[in-house]
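Query form — protein Expansin-like EG45 domain-containing protein

QUESTION: What is the three-dimensional structure of this chain?
INPUT:
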Amino acid sequence: MISAFSIFRIPTSFFLFVALLNWITPTPVGATHSRLKRSSCRPKRTSDGAALTATFSGKGTHNPDDWGSGNCAFTKWPRPAGFGAVAMASNQWNSSGICGACLEITGSGGTFKGIVGNQCPSCEPNGLDLDTDIWNQVSGHKDFGIIQLTW
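ANSWER: The C-alpha cells for Expansin-like EG45 domain-containing protein are given below.
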C-alpha cells in the first residue's frame, strides 16, 4: 500500500538549505535589544567586581524626537520607565554599539537616568541630546538651549 508520505518525500538537501538560510538571515537592527530586561541597566562589572564606568563631560541639548524613531530602531521595545531617551554624540556612537546603554546624567537639576536610543551627529564631542522629560529633570526646568552635563 502506498501512503501519502511515501509519495511526497522531501529531499534532505531542502532541510539543509532552510537551516542555512535561517542561519545567514540578518537580524533586524534593535532586535537583540528587545530582549533586554529592565533590570539590566546596571553598570557592567570586571572579574574582580569593580564597576566598568567612566565619567564624561559635555553639552546637553534638547531633542523632541520620539523614542522609537531613533537610529537604534527601538520600534517594538518600549522605553523603560524612569529612563529618559538620549541621543549620543558621534564620537561615542561606536557604530550603534552604544544603543540601549544606560547613563546617569547630571546637570543643574540633579542626576537622572537616561537610555541611548539615537545618534546625535550635530552634538559636540561627549554631548547628549535629551528628550523633553529628561531635559526638564536634568536642567531643572530651564528653557531649551545648551546646558553643561556630566554622565
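ADDITIONAL NOTE: Residues 34-150 form a domain with the Barwin-like endoglucanases fold (CATH 2.40.40.10).
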